[in-house]
Amino acid sequence: HLSNGLHTAPFYHNLKLIGNINPEATSSRSGLGIRAPKDNENFYVSGMTVVGYHGTAVLFGCHETMCTMRFERCRWFNSSKRTSSSGDVSGIYWDMDGTLTNYPNGFVAIKKNFLQFDDKCEIQSEHVNGVVCGRPDGSVRLRRNYVSGQEPWQLDGKAMLVETRAGSDQMAFDFKKLYGWAVPSVEDEIYDMRINDPNDFQQLTQEYGTRPYVMEEWGYLYNKVQPMNEALTVHLNFTDWRDHYDASVGPRLSRRPTREDSFGAHSMLLWPDQCEPYNLSEVNSQKCGVYVNDTGLALKDELDESPEIDQVHGRLTTVLTMKVDGGNGTPWTAVDPRSGSLRQTLTPRECPKSGCPKPEVLPPGQLRPLRKWSDPLGWPDRKLPGEMDNVVLPPDDNVLLDIVTPKLHWLTVEGRLEFSREVSTTLNAHSVKVWGQLEIGTEADPIPPNVKAEIAFWGDEEAHTVIMAEGLFLVNKVMAVLGRMSAVGSPLGTPMPSLEEAGGVGATSQGTAGVARRLSAESNVQAWSRLVATADAGSTTIVARGNLSLWPSGAQVAISATEFPQPPATTETEVRTLVEAPIYNDQEDTTTMTIDSSLAHRHFAGEVDSSDQNSHWPRPRLAAAVALLQGRSNVVFKTAEDDNEHGGEVVIAGTSEGDWVGVANISNVDFIRMGKHYYQSPALKFNFLGGQTGSNASRVENCVFSNSQSGAIQVDGASNLEILNNVFHRTYRTAVWIGSSSANDAIVIKKNIAIETLRHPRESTSWVRSFAAFLLEVRPKELVGNIAAGSADSGFLLRPRLVDCSSGPPTYERLQEEELNEAVACLTGVFILRACQEECNSCAEVRGHVAWKNAHAGIITVDQSSNMLLDSVMLSDNHIGVVLYFNRGNSDMSHRIYSNNVTIFGSTAASTCDGSTDCRALGREDKVGETCNSVVGSAYRRVGIMTHMVGRMPKLCEANPKLKVCRPPNTPVKECVMPWEHRLGTLGSRYSEAHWSNVTFGHFSTSDCGKPSYALTYNPTFIDAAFPQFFSNVNWLPSIEDDAKTFLGESTVTGNRVNMDPDFDGTNQMVLTDVDGSLLGTATTGGSAVNTYNPALAIESCTQTSGFYRCPDLPLRFLKWEDIASPENRVLSKFKVWRDSDDRSTWSTGPMDDGCIPDPPELDRHWMIRPNDFYNLTMFTSPPKHHRLFWFNDNEDESIRLDIFLTQPWRLEVYVDGALMPEDSYDTAKKSTPRLPELADPHGSYTFDPHERRFYLIMTGGSFSGRAATKGAGFILLRMLQVVQISMTVSVTLEDFEGPALTNNIATLLQIDPSRIKIVSVQSRAQVAAGGRRLTDSSGLSIIFQIVEANPEPIPGEAFADSGVEPPAGVVWTVTVESTPGNESNDTNGTGGSPAPSYSFTSESLEELKQLAQVLQDAADSGDLSEVLQMPVVLEAIATTDPEAPAAIEEPSTTTLMATHQPDILEDTGLIVSVVIGALVGIFVGAAMMGICIYVKNTYISRENQVTPGPGQENLDFRDLGNETDPPAQPEP
Is 217 exposed, middle or buried (0-12, 13-18, 19+ CB in 10 A)? Predict the structure, then answer.
């Protein structure tokens, strides 16, 4: 953005836009004239002539944030449409001089009814979907009012209702950039606003315009816009009671604020027409219908005395006033001298400024004796409480509820209330406030089975607001507990104790009930069970496991879904009524139930694999669940009205100060139709504002939550809570939601079942807002034996436990069936959140999960920052079994995936072709998952394991701050990042491994209901790299087809943002490694399954299958090359490697950028390399100054030699783990017998052949200084130094040649340090003519020497430090490494200062080398060179390194095919003729070129024969090598 401030020059100046050059045309041949930036407040155009756009709109922009664009000096010819506005965050056009709107200081904004003020604004045909606001005197201002910071979360995504005197309309919520609303607002008007949700805001921020626009004079050469006083009045309406409002800025007034008040002045009023029915006292009536500072506790108390009248609503009014002073040569200043943005944050308060009154709670010993509720004498006025009474039990009161109460308004328990254990009771109330103790049975003394205790909640949305402590926002129809509550019933089937058990004749009721809990445990009548056999569609009987005969006739039961859900609103869960008592068969331990109507869907139950070969998970059984929805317990919390969606809510709460912390023990309780649907409030909420302090443990156990009207249990701020053995049915959004404010490793969630979790109808569909049956934002202490059956999104969305896997995966004992968590018939079975907020190397443990019949994936993780361990996992009949997406940094090499005892099935008996054939997944456009949006889409029916991805760019808000607010934590930051498993950004980790051990596969087929299914395949969007996948102890069951085991073939998937192509590294380097032969089914270990995109990666002995090359004799290891710190915009071409053993070549393109969120890739390349082989590496580009090489291989017996082709003369230095490799020890040309490096040489051995221009380098596997190569140890850094290379002949015999004298004489001539001169080749002239063969007859020498750049800068320590490798012991990589050509020391870790780091070549060094070359050339031409060297000299060639010169070698071509699979050209005679003709032409051309070359050489380069230096001479040429075994011939580039 060139315009990066208010006072900078225009973005465009004197621009001419021609839509159609034809003057006779009636339409434009162009699209938009100017597409302004989408979010830049400072866009400015001065001077614009528009011709021939006709009906095409010319201007568009600021369409993501409603920012302001400025225009002046516009001229229009044959252009009838000037601006276009589209969407509720469309930009505001500011016309500075009237040439855009006909009004100076005119504005164009999105067309909304509330903007169409008849005296200020109008519709003009030139402005598409826009409203023009202005006046001839230029006095109108239109600003963006940016509303954000909304609380609670339920307000996210809802529309803002806006009303002015001009009309009413609504503004959409923006997730992407604002996470709020932008409201175009005309200055000096009144805006009445409310978020379209029953929840009042608990916090809200407004920001008026942009401060410089409002308070500064600005303009370019032609017009100046001067600031003026501005004010905007905003009404914010509320329905729940508010005492007062706090504001971040502005005074709270006792009158209506006006534009004369300071910015943010505010006050509130209550609607007088709603106060009138109350007949208030004179004092309190003075606070109704007028603006007040606060409403006061006295008024609230008086209103609450008339609960039959609806709650009084009101509004908050705030004035955003901007006043300026100046002009007429005086600088403009703000009257209100505040700096920063024009922002105000408002926070409502329910309590007075002095706080809400709280009672003094007495200890149990100070309570009065227990009295009965039914005794009138115990009440102050000697009569029982009546309907709609507000009842208060004072701190010392102790009451036994022994009746069915009338419909009370409020019951406040400051003392103690106990429910009778002798008679059935019902507490009917609108709300209950518990400060003291509420006892409805205890764990030791539950409500006995022959007694029923109920709390029935009454009222609607207009009921009076319940207030206990600041910040709780309880609304109404609630039981709020700041004291202690115990609610423990007896489950269905609990027998009454016998007389003897109760203690004999005269035993008390408490003694009778005291054994009820033991008898309850012994009876163990379950609230749910599993089907024994499949219940087909049309069935009227179902058979379940266990004794369920006490389930009552007439009760409702839910049968869980076993097919894919149908988002957003349905699953195949069915609810039926039992028409008779169930019949138990004690021989088979099954119960048969008859239901009132036939089933509409199939509900599977059965064994899905019976093969004897399945040793990892023998004879697995999957089954639908059936649950009793009512009548299980004798303690009931319920919404009293059958047709009221505004249900009751139980809140266990704590104050922000922590002085009041509620405690609840809730066991064997039925929650029926609880929760507030429109408020999205759960049936039971734990909300500890100040945390759960001390030993205040709470428990929810053996409860049934049926037909919940929103969520079931929501937990915030808890640190000591158990949720055990509960049944949740038909919850919206979540069954159990543990919020991020709760403590990690503190909450137990065990053996619960959630049947049917649905998207809430009021949830926004404009953004992906994920939910789950079990949504756990913190790590649970225990997560065992839970079931999510039927969810329109995830079954489990959880924060995993971390375990240490630094020395490999831990070992565990086998889990039992009842210990496994299960997800079935969900969109996604288990969604794993980040285990660490930052990158870490512990393992996220995913243990004990069964996921089957899930429409997208069984197990998925996105942006995972840790390593991962999968243990005791079974995945069956899912669209994708497991897909893992990690977020790690570029230098990471510690990333690992481990698995143990993992069983993965395709389509078992649980699947038919009648259902669950097409996946369901959230997508870019599909925010609810109505269609199949996975990365493999409808191309496959089932995939078992999809190879993992590691990306650098996080795609979820938890790790990516692109979203201003992050809730829930897996919210995507942009629509285009979807689906979950789609690649985003570019490559993350430098290296990663997946170890799939003890894995069983079965039931995959290439024709699965007409679609293929594969056990193993790749992610078709991960184009950047193919990380090693190691397989061991793989168990292939007989139920899997051979061709369905592995597919690494050409993808048929389309529709993703990126698709596989043979050019991508993620495609052509894709390999699966068979550690023990079990993957490929061979006796050979260490073999590979190679992709079919790149046959050259395979070897001759490989065999081709339908989906990959089977290569049992081919081990492959991961080699990484990196360009260190070249500019991001540098373009590297493909890099090619030839394998010397079979002359096959493959390419590396490197990682790619991403069009969704730009993320420039690192400049690196990688290949899968065969150990103990030679590879020729060619870069089709000029090389960088510093290279890094990693060969990730821990086998010390394996080596490779890289022959790196260089297009120009260079000198290379080799560093291993930051230490310079001394030439005398590692340069094999320095050996007593000079030679090329061999595979047996040490890691880092090297040499350079100046004739072939090849640099040879040895890399070995193993460990280095106790650190593994697969963790990056032993990495090699190559530094390239610029040189001038001189080739010359001298008339001297080898016996008379003195290298040091030559070096010193040339240094004297050039006046440089002799250490800069390196003789790299000495050959006899005859040897040169003979192609390198040693000749004894020689009368002259051909010499090549290099002059290295002067004083090269030290290698920056960062070049080693950012390698991601731990330095060897005692080494520090935070300082630069001193290295000069004359210093061969390997002590490269000094402690002194150093120059600024430099990663690039310097033009100064290059220029100095060119000057030296010119001096040599001049000396040769004048004869001075021969005189200085004291011998006849002929200067043959001078070459100077030029880093910017293009590579003078061939461009990349297509990948070489395997010889065994090339097309048979003999089958086509025409093709034979073409080939023969082409060959003859090629031979002719080649012969002609060779002749020309020989002629040139003989004419211009012919010299006397050269002699070969004898033993002991330095810098010998490789054409005179004395290897005992000749090295393999090297392919020419």
Answer: middle
